[in-house]
Amino acid sequence: MKQEIVNKALEVLRQTTGIQAVFNEKGPLDGVLEMAYNGVVNVFSVEIKEELRRYQLLQIENYLKSNKDFLLIANRIFPKIKEELREKEIPYLEANGNIYIKKDGLFLFVDTQKTLEIEKNKGNRAFTKTGLKVLLYLLQHKEAIHLPQRELANLTNVALGNIPQVIEGLKETGYLIPLSNKTFLWENRKALFERWVAEYGSILRPKLVKERYTLKAKWQEIQFYKHKTVWGGEPAADLITNHLRPEKFMLYTKENRMELIKNYNLMPDKNGEIEVLEMFWGENEGKTAPAILVYAELMLEAGKRNKETAEKIYHEHIEPNL
Fold first, then answer.
1. Is there a contact between 21 and 35 (Cβ–Cβ < 8 Å)?
2. Could you tell me whether strands 92-94 and 70-77 are parallel, antiparallel, or unpaired per DSSP bridges?
3. Domain of 133?
4. Helices 304-313 & 57-66 angle (0-180, nearest 10)
5. Which residue, among 305, 165, 166, 293, has the nearest Cα to 244 in the 3D structure?
6. What pLDDT is stored for residue 113 in this prediction?
7. d(C-alpha 194, C-alpha 75), whole Å
8. Same domain, yes or no: 146 and 179
9. Shortest CA distance to 310 belongs to which of 241, 251, 250, 246?
10. Which pTM does this prediction carry?
11. Closest Cα to residue 35, out of 51, 13, 16?
12. Residue after which a domain boundary falls, among 187, 215, 234
């Protein structure tokens, strides 16, 4: 897949600009690209993405810092993200031939090519609303894939019939390799995690939003009732890391409106500072949503402070389980 993206991008670049380039998979990151322009050969360390999402920008910035001549090649980059890349002077090349490079007297900028459409995986149940709920648990507990399906369904709060469909979807996409009838080997869980974050933002999260409330007390003083309500987003990140002072507030809850008003003195307000979402997973310990969910919300919200805190959460609380 990655080689196909590079081949397509280089061919379109040659057709539209006459620039010749050769890619070699050996080297740092995903490989090395040699690009000849005006008689000068420039060599780049290349990272290849299918579709660049905002939550991946911090990772790309780190690649730029750790690789002197870095180039991002992607099948598709959304216009606003391309603007951010140019603001940070991060070189990129799209599969449609759009390019931005500014380094050592070399300046290339083409942004006239139409954005390519990406084929969606149709019918893959691992990345539906229900599948994403199951994956949240499996990303936290990798050995749970070997549990009896009924037990996994109970733990993830979904109907039993969904479990074999999710497992089949993971096998189809190559994240799960069957060793026998009931045993599996995980493959590239980091990529699965990155995809979960992206799909959560577009597929699952919009279905979770309930309403907004006004907070009548200091958020740190609220005592939640039997883990039916927990902090998410920035407040959760502050509780986990003590590194972020929240400006936006979020709750996940299994309680209804009257319970939220009675138990925590929250007042419904369409312009209120607290966004309340459905708590869709099973048992919860502590005052915060799972670290993966907190990370996802920070990256979707974006901003430098959120990204820095998200990276801290990733390295300390997520990466060890991948």
1. yes
2. parallel
3. 125-187
4. 80
5. 305
6. 75
7. 16
8. yes
9. 241
10. 0.72
11. 13
12. 187
**Residue 115 forms part of a structural domain:** no
Block means of pLDDT (10 residues each) for the chain, length 322 residues? 87 90 87 90 92 82 89 92 93 94 88 66 80 97 95 94 95 91 90 91 93 91 88 97 94 95 93 95 87 95 89 95 90
Measured in whole angstroms, the distance separating CA 252 from the mean position of its chain's CA atoms is: 19
Looking at the structure, tell me whether residues 180 and 251 fall in a common domain: no
Q: Which stretches does DSSP call E strand in 111-233?
A: 176-178, 184-186, 209-214, 229-232
Give the end of a domain, one of 187, 217, 237. Answer: 187
In terms of domains, do 298 and 211 share one? yes
Write the single-letter amino acid at 138.
Answer: L
Pick the closest to residue 293 from 196, 220, 222 (CA basis). Answer: 196
Residues facing residue 319 across a β-bridge:
none
User: What pLDDT is attached to residue 121?
Assistant: 46
Any idea which residue has 């733990």 for tokens? 155
From edge to edge, which strands make up the β-sheet containing 209-214?
Answer: 229-232, 249-253, 274-278, 209-214, 267-268
CATH code for position 175: 1.10.10
d(CA 163, CA 295): 25
One domain for residues 9 and 74 = yes
For residue 119, being part of any structural domain is answered with: no
Report residue 247 as tokens. Answer: 């400006």
Give the pLDDT of residue 115.
Answer: 67
- Six-digit token pair at 68? 């002197």
Number of structural domains in the chain: 3
